[in-house]
Amino acid sequence: MATKRVGNLPADYANNGFYGQDILSVNQFDKGKLDYIFRVAHEMRVLVERFGSADLLQGKILANLFYEPSTRTSSSFMASMLRLGGQVIPINNVQYSSVTKGESLPDTIRTLESYADVIVLRHPEVGAAATAARYAQKPLINAGDGVGEHPTQALLDLFTIVEDLGKVDTLKIAMVGDLKYGRTVHSLTKLLVNYDVEFVFVSPDILAMPDDVLEVVRERGHKFRVTQDVHEVIGDVDVLYVTRVQKERFSDMAQYDRVRDQYVVDEALMAKAKREMIVMHPLPRVNEISYAVDEDPRAAYFRQMRNGMYIRMALLAAVLGKA
Ligand code: CP
Questions:
Q1: So what's the pLDDT on residue 13?
Q2: CATH superfamily, domain at 151-305
Q3: Is 101 designated active site?
Q4: Is 0.85 surpassed by the pTM of this model?
Q5: Is residue 247 annotated as a catalytic residue, yes or no?
């Protein structure tokens, strides 16, 4: 991938493999790059806990362009830039931008990169981030493209496993719920195949993990199991990664109603789980994790959400040559 323009080469530039790069897919990350980003993210965590902010990205501007709703991804990218001393052009409501007048994605990208040093894009169409990156002279980060990928979420998910459990190898990881439309589980699975893990995919038939993702798991020689019954596997897993059934992706609402509450993680289910396991969720949740579980120390989803900021601080610093 060609290195893009990020201004004059910084004095402390290090060839970290990310400088001037787009972040479009988890396929860009091997174990070395994952270790690097997790080390920087850990440092960002220490920095925020000790000092709150730094001036690493002073003078840099992020264009935060969201064509789909977001709370965490959007605000954590903004917080990341602000905590590193940079500034943000926030476009969370494209209906108030020239997109409403019919401006194309390439023209919107060309406009924003005239003002900013890095662009974050969330878009409802699979492949939109890759398309936008072809037109962008500045680094572009995929913040979710339809049912395709959500690479920064997968990075923060994996970082949470590392920080909470201290390892990834030998873990048994169950993914539960909407494995068809949930882009986070597609991306996370493709990252996890870099490690010695076993998978369990728990979903209704109509929301099964897509074949192309299962093929990656097979190709990399991982054991996996497919089931509809979370009770069968709960006592045996180290990570229970729960997802929301994505109502917005259904065209038949009767079908949505049939599967929406099939899995609910509650205190009774948690009583059957290992003492050392963690429950994760990319959030937002609807009904799939009961509020009573929030008090359980194994509930990792709020830590996971906070880790999103450290990972995004690391990525912004890395692509701008300051990590
Ligand atoms: N996990 C996640 O992507 O959340 P948001 O949709 O709120 O950004």
A1: 54
A2: Aspartate/ornithine carbamoyltransferase (3.40.50.1370)
A3: yes
A4: yes
A5: no
pLDDT, mean of each 10-residue run, the chain (323 residues): 66 72 96 96 98 97 96 98 98 84 93 97 96 97 93 98 98 96 92 97 95 97 97 98 87 84 95 98 95 98 98 97 87
Written as one string, the DSSP assignment of 1-44 is -PPPP-SSPPTT----S-TT--B--GGG--HHHHHHHHHHHHHH
Q: Where are the domains of the chain?
A: 26-150+307-319, 151-305
φ, ψ (nearest 5 deg) of residue 107: -70, -35
Sign of CA dihedral 256, 301, 159, 10: positive
285 touches ligand 1 (CB under 6 Å)? no
Rounded Cα distance between 186 and 224, Å, is 14
User: What fold does the segment set 26-150+307-319 form as a domain?
Assistant: Rossmann fold (3.40.50)
Between CA 227 and CA 230 the distance in angstroms is 8
Query: Hey, do 26-150+307-319 and 151-305 end up sharing a CATH topology, with the first three levels equal?
Result: yes
Q: Which atom of ligand 1 is nearest to the CA of 73?
A: 8
Q: How is residue 179 written in tokens?
A: 């494995």
88: tokens are 């943000």
**Residue 153 beta carbon below 6 angstroms from any ligand 1 atom:** yes
Residue located nearest, by CA, to atom 5 of ligand 1 = 70
The angle subtended at Cα 178 by Cα 172 and Cα 179, nearest 5°, is 55
How far is the centre of ligand 1, averaged over its atoms, from the C-alpha of 308 (Å)? 10
Q: How far apart are CA 261 and CA 32, in angstroms?
A: 39
Alpha carbon 214 to its chain's center: 19
CB 18 within 8 Å of CB 323 = yes
Query: How many Cβ atoms from other residues are within 10 Å of residue 251's Cβ?
Result: 6
| The dihedral formed by the CA atoms of 278, 153, 125 and 60, expressed in degrees to the nearest 10 | 160
Which of 4, 45, 60, 73 does the annotation list as catalytic? 73
User: Own/partner pairs for 212-219, CB < 8 Å, 24+ apart?
Assistant: 213/185, 213/186, 213/189, 216/189, 216/190, 217/189, 217/193
Question: What's the pLDDT score for residue 54?
Answer: 97
